[in-house]
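Chapter review. Work through the record for histidine kinase before attempting the end-of-chapter questions.
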Amino acid sequence: GDDATAGALQRRRLIGYGVAAAASVATALITTPLLAWLDLANIAMLFLLVVVLVAVRFGRGPSVLATCVSVACFDFFFVPPRFTLAVTDFQYLITFIVMLAVGLITGHLTADLRFQARVAAQRERRARALYEFARELSGALQTEQIYDTTRRVIQQAFRARATLLLPDDAGRLHQPPPEHASLAADIAGNGHSGAHLAALDTGIAQWAYDRAEPAGLGTDTLPASRIFYLPLVAPMRTRGVLAIEPQQRRWMLIPEQRQQLDTFAALAAIALERVHYIEVAQGALVSMETERLRNSLLAALSHDLRTPLTSLVGLSEALTSSRPALSEAQQDTARALHDEALRMSTMVANLLDMARIQSGEVHFNLQWQALEEVVGSALRAAGSALKGHQVSTKLAPALPLLRYDAVLIERVLVNLLENAAKYTPPGAHIEIAAVLHGAWLNVTVHDDGPGLPAGREEALFEKFTRGERESAKPGVGLGLAICRAIVEAHGGRISAGRGALGGAAFTFTLPLGTPPAMPDEEVHD
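Structure tokens for histidine kinase:
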């Protein structure tokens, strides 16, 4: 703790003063028998040598004491009259003053050099620790590796207990789990780590994380805390909080230590962000590969199923008109077989179209044409599905020509009409409306049915998603996904919501553009 460290420093300081005084007295005792062979100037140099050695070993304070004791011993043992502190020759007073001044200056300069050398050594150790830390983080591919490396390096480099608090998906910080391997081993081998974890205040850490500002020990925010909370601010966002409990509270007041710690925190934050985007990239890569394989499988299956389904549709049609004529029950069975074959053929066509659109194999035949034509063809194509429903159109007068692929836009309208007929009761009203809105044409298919599931308006356009999760209604959930892909390929957008009739409404937009100029009519005389 702080008290034990302070006691050790006090004992070391007292030892230094004792050694300084003893060394000066010992020098006097050793050189006294040699007075007949040594000049007083040489003896004074020996005392200055002792001062220098004490300053190098113990610092400024002991060197000052060694200087004073050396001057006193030189006066007592060597200056006439010997073994007294009296001085008969005035020149010796000058010698004492010069010797004292030289000793003090020499001790001061030596102590400064010792301090500078110690600072340089500490800087070298910090630079090496920083290099090692950066090298270890560069090879980290998992968050757990960054967690272990950061804790270990901070504890070694700064003689402080450290913990990394990381956020969850909701941005809430949590203490590390007790089952964490390195943390459990640390707690088992050092009881102080358990006390450190118990002293963590996640509220302070959350404050530092939310505001990207340090808090706790040595800051203006809750300075009474014994733990310093440093947010790990990366280029994109804050990635966590580093909680540090130094062995000495005054450690946080040293600027170089704070700068070094800030550098360590910045490296840890960048490493966490790098690992995060590695995970995002890996997830995206897996998703892309899964999508590619799924599209390939859909395309292969759809292509292989179309031929037998076409044959099944033709055979069912031939069965209904076979001779001799079938009985009424057999006719019903043949018609049901034909309808189901058509339904399966439509599903397979949707699967194949979706796979082709996703793979970019669909080539658009964009032509300037009227919307009324494709609306009429879509109503005819969806006629069987719309039986028993009231269908109307509400198209704005004098609609301009639009540049689109008539076959694909017809597919969009057919899918929306069939979807409306599927999820509304018999007799429901379905309407197709089109209005101009700025530089866009808004086309809406809406009904007066039960409407859309709350909160799932956007999810309905995902592949293999249906309006009712468990439903006996036919379909595989690709119709709306195909609509979105086709509309977005034309530069528009499609959305779902509540319509004017009170039920579901699907609206897609098409850009107006600038139609080509019509040729002038020929004038005949």
